Amino acid sequence: MDVLRLIAKGMSNAEIAENLVITQQTAKGHASNILSKLQLADRTQAAVYAWREAVVGRD
């Protein structure tokens, strides 16, 4: 859920990795898994999904 939330905030894999104290490769893998499991084509669709499902706040 943290990775999806950070994707929705527009963070790159490098920024996600730094924020979560993981490697960039791990961040990329998590992002890829999210897209696959949710059947989304790209990070933009993931961000829209996160907003629609209230994964991120509307502040």
Give a written overview of the molecule.
With 59 residues, this protein is mostly helical. The protein is built from 4 helices and no strands. Helix 1 (2-8) crosses helix 4 (43-52). Helices cover 66% and strands 0% of the residues. The longest helix is centred in the middle third of the chain and has 14 residues, at 24-37. The chain has a single domain, classed as Winged helix-like DNA-binding domain superfamily/Winged helix DNA-binding domain (Arc Repressor Mutant, subunit A, Orthogonal Bundle), CATH 1.10.10. It has helices at 2-8, 13-20, 24-37, 43-52. The model has no long low-confidence stretch (mean pLDDT 94).
Overview in brief:
With 59 residues, the protein is mostly helical. It has helices spanning 2-8, 13-20, 24-37, 43-52.
Count of discrete structural domains = 1
Task: Note poorly predicted spans.
Answer: none
CATH classification class: Mainly Alpha
* Radius of gyration, taken over Cα atoms and rounded to an integer in Å: 11 Å
Elements, N to C (H/E): HHHH
CATH-level-4 superfamily name: Winged helix-like DNA-binding domain superfamily/Winged helix DNA-binding domain
Structural class: mainly alpha
Tell me the strand percentage band.
under 5%
Main attributes?
single chain, 59 residues, mainly alpha, Arc Repressor Mutant, subunit A
List the helices and strands and how they pair.
Layout: H1 2-8, H2 13-20, H3 24-37, H4 43-52
